[in-house]
Amino acid sequence: MLNIQHQFVENILCNASHGAKEQGRAFASSNIALCKYWGKRDQELNLPMNGSLSISLGSKGTLTEVQRSSLDRFFLNDQLIDPSSTFSLRLSRFLDLFRNKCRAPGFKVLTYNTIPTAAGLASSASGYAALVLALDDLAGWQLNRKKLSMLARIGSGSAARSLYSGFVVWHAGINQDGLDSYAEQLDVKWPEFQIGILKLSNNKKPISSRSAMQRTVNTSKRYRKWPKRAADDLEKIKISILEGNFSRMGQIAEDNALEMHATMREAVPSIDYFISETWIQIKKIQKLRNNGLSIYLTIDAGPNIKLLFQRKDAHIVIKEFDSLEIIDPFGDNNA
Ligand code: PMV
Fold it and tell me: Is the pTM of this model over 0.85?
């Protein structure tokens, strides 16, 4: 009897082709959600309660090489990772789904992150997307991006969105089989759109996003309003992107992120990823906006802030925030 994840992978790969490469290789960009994914309706298949929308980080992401091997060995930026670490155990469990399909008892996985490790950006999204692409290259499945996004989703929900560049929507879907929950790209380029990474802390997360989501769904009364709120925000953000309305997009994205954090603060026990510096910077950003600068923020499961602004204002933003890492999602090498 196949378990539910194996059955799902079986469904996706049933008509796939087969090749005979010795090594698979791929790159995937990281992404930041403008309308957040928070809460699962199915833990095994990583099916979300709500749809989400992200912007890709272009050349910032993960490059992965994968080879068949007698046992699993994982390297991150050329360093062997401890096989008993949570990272390795999670990766091995994910690879269990593909061993038969790749005719590999184990995998040697070499991973290089081009996301500055000091920037406080999550790498699981680009990590699982690059791994799925590299497995597709190794085994010669030639799957389309839609199917690959569903495979990456099993590793980490937000990875579903890292199969594309630019703006990406991950559809929540309604079916229990998980085959209608996939990501697709919005056909829009917005070269003015810039992201600033404001890193405020290096500390490890107090609680993983997986556990935090579950606790929020189970115990936060405020969460009852979240799926509808997120669905409305997604539509409004999509329209403001299509219309090129930066301030509307930015305001909805900021409110969406702050609502997600307010929802988890009402979980029992409360979950609070912010540190005092997070609040100080939020106030500063809101004050700059009151003084006429079109700048907005978003925050994931951590204390660090991502600024959203336009290229024409970059010189002002750089002056206001020291050591800001600026990402140009539609720049020369991106999107
Ligand atoms: O994909 P996960 O399980 O790491 O969860 C991502 C959660 C957020 O980053 C907070 C929101 C999102 O949509 O990326």
Answer: yes
